[in-house]
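Show me any protein, fold above all:
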Amino acid sequence: ESRAEIRGSGAIAQGPGSVAVAGDVHGPIHTGTGNIVQNITQYVTNPPPIRTIFRDIGELFKRNRLLIGLTFALQIPLAILFFAYRDRYLLSDWIYLTLAFLLAFVGWRWLKLIRERPPRATLRRSLYLTSLITLAWVSILSHQTWTMAHPRKFLDNQFGIAVSTFGEGTNSRSSRLGREITQQLLDDLNEAIRQESGRVRIGKETTRDPATLRIGVVREDLQATEDGERVGAELVLWGRVLEEKKGSEIHFQALETPDITDNPSFPQTMLVETGLRSKIALTSTNPVDVMNAVSAQNAVIIHYSLGLYYYLNLDFESAVDQFESALDYAKPATSKTNLVDPAIVYYYLGKSYQFLEKYEEAQAALEEAARLNPKEPAIALAQAYNQRAMGHEEEKQNALQRAIDLCNRLPSTKAVIYDRALAYEGQGDLEAALREYEALLREEPDFFIAYLSSARILSQFDRYDEAMARYQQAARLADGQAAKQAWLSLDLGSLYERMKQPDEALAQYSQAIALDPTLSGPYFRRAQFYEKTGMINAASQDYQKLAEISSQPHWAHETFAEFLRRTGNCTAAVDQYQEALRYPVFNNALTHARLGRAYACSDEQAFPDKQERANDEFKKALRAPGPDEAYIRSEYGWVLAGFGLNQDAIEQLKRSIEVNPGIDTVTMLNLGQLYETVGDTAMAMETYEKVVSRESEIPKEAFEKALQRLANLADKEIE
């Protein structure tokens, strides 16, 4: 009774070996008078016998067993959850300590309110304070839980670099050294991005800086890729430090997430062995030596990351600069150790040169990538594309077959099946390509690009219903992703055109432009559609827009120029051809020839010396005509004939046929007519007879025209 009375009144009991109980404490405090601090001070300055201490502690636990039991019951699950997910979600120690303290305090306050039932005035204040603290605890816990359940997503136009915390040791647990390495990598990345961000462009628009996000401790590349995809990153940097008694090994890896390979803007290849890898063995376990080695590797990682960032944002010149810098740092640090495997850097360097239409530089980079990694089919595919652009048909076919052979030697993963399908498609074996795409969809039913690729082939086989079904499946995967929806609309527009539904086709092209105004394809397709349907002004606007936004300005300006020439506006076409020539590419010969043709048909008031200008451009074209020599000479002959230089025209057309005996029949018919014009009937008849002899190879109209002219010449000879 006395103790209950004391506890209720808040008085202090005194006496030798007695227990002091204050209003806020339900347990023994050794001798002394005054408040709890004074009583605890007595324990320190005038320690009692050990038996008394044990007795007092036991009394403390006995009297507060409900509070202590409740505290442990609440704290143990909180601690288990924190330590289970701390590394996975990089949970803050301070947040955990705050939650733990508030939880203990809240539990104590609620228990005190329930047990003591203070007067109404005191109860109101206590209830208000306790509720406020409880609300704060619930808010912090809810926010932390929501953050874990909904990781931050990168914006559509941001390039995400998700950086994992480096693990240390065989189990890759988080450590102080690992966190230091991660922070250094983040700081270096942010500084590099800050210095370079002014150069980031999409067309003529400035885009956002790339983002970095820590995603936790990663133990292997599959988890790194999945975690990166979960937070919306396109590139994941991760690594670990493995320590042994004699030294350390440092592993670096940069991984692409599936969004990169499932992006229709870059559908040409999929790397089987993705990721920029690096491994350095050190004889020292000194953290300073480890940090110095990591600093050297950081330079490679930073330049590679920025290069890929620019590449995906279509700024290929900046991408080339960064990849070249990465290769400078990737050179061996010692005679035995590379900072990084440079094959993937050479691969993306080659791809960047391809988009810049610098095919010779691309070929050199891809050859080096193939030398460093001869088992990667994606490199062979990129080489095939390059050879096609350079007009080397035999080399292209060899590269495609090499890609197929490499794929056949590898396990049938998603990347292998996709690359094999691309190779078959490049060879023109559409049935084999379709089989591969369908096999891929069975393996990966959520692989967006495979739906588009297979639907395009189905539409070429006139299997429109099946193609439409594939596009509908792709629409489900593209929901909420503007870039993919734009590509889907672009493909649907082409399908509707093949199905002779022009209104639906136009609507889809326009929708693609609305979804992604920076995409070149929809403007190009809609411009072609307008031109075919006679809407010349609308077509001109789209071709002009294409020239303004395209990441391949040479092609875009030349495409606009060709449209202007076709529609009779040769003078304006000259300006666009000249603009195209401002962007040097692998072979400008064709552009010079087309500019010469535009001068020839231009208004004399604009170009009084148009004949000289046209001749100059064709001479430039013929200095290094490449695989287009036959076509260039054919065009030159037609221009010379227009200026009345028939004999010179005949020489160019004859040379055209010598370079390519299988050249189109238009060139041979033109040559026959020129022979007629200069009065050489025998040569004219011989030329027409060559055309007639190719009856099974040429259009019926050309055959009948040659036959008619041959008959006319025969009648004249009889007369």
The beta strands are 160-165, 167-168, 173-174, 201-202, 205-206, 211-217, 235-243, 248-256, 276-282. The chain is about 65% helix and 5% strand.
